[in-house]
Amino acid sequence: MTGSERREAIVSRIENSGTPVSGTALAASFGVSRQVIVQDIALIRAAGYEILSTNRGYILNRSAVVSRTFKVRHTDEQLEEELYSIVDLGGCVKNVMVNHKVYGHMEAPLNITSRRKAAEFIEDIRSGKSSPLKNITSGYHYHVIEADSEETLDLIADMLEAKGFLVKKEQSGYNEKEKIQ
After folding, report:
1. Are 79 and 122 in contact (CB under 8 A)?
2. Which of 118, 64, 72, 73 is nearest to 92 (CA)?
3. What DSSP state is assigned to residue 83?
4. Mapping DSSP to helix (H, G, I), strand (E, B) and coil, where does residue 113 land?
5. Residue percentage of the chain with pLDDT more than 70
6. Residue 85 Cα distances to 4, 116, 162, angstroms
């Protein structure tokens, strides 16, 4: 087994374990020293995996990110209110999407995670560089919103509905076959 194959197996073992995996157990199962495992863990971390060391062993930190697609409609003047309200509740506005009857599906990444990023985006729009993508579909558009939990997404949904931004199926005016994947 090569070092690369061993590191893949280490990640798999830690990922699939319901409990922390000790370095000693990893060393024994791969027939290497504990020091080799420590070096492998350092290389695995450098590759982008968030491996945490605990007093009981190694665990893989998987941030619990959930997402939901929301269909919304608002004016250009309400854009700031929409974005600020979402990030204030802990959401990340990943993108904006529209389904145009002629042009089809169009999407642009946003990755707005804070008021600062929202303000930068709004300033770019207000400076006249471009107009919001939603304007080509009479204001109707979609956002994929990420959050740390379904409860946070529910709070965002409730807020969007309370502000009148959330579009119900019967309000859209568009054929509901425009389902976003």
Report:
1. yes
2. 118
3. H
4. coil
5. 91
6. 45, 13, 11
Tokens of residue 91, six digits: 């959401």
At residue 96, the 3 state secondary structure works out as strand
Q: What's this model's pTM, rounded to 2 decimal places? A: 0.62
CA 74 and chain centroid, separation: 23
Q: Letter for the amino acid at 120?
A: E
Helix (H, G, I), strand (E, B) or coil at 163: coil
Four-point Cα dihedral 42, 45, 50, 51, nearest 10 = -30
Alpha carbon of 140 to those of 74, 98, 112, 160: distances in Å?
Answer: 8, 7, 19, 14
pLDDT tens digits, residue range 138-163?
999 999 999 988 999 999 999 999 99
How far is CA 101 from its chain centroid?
28
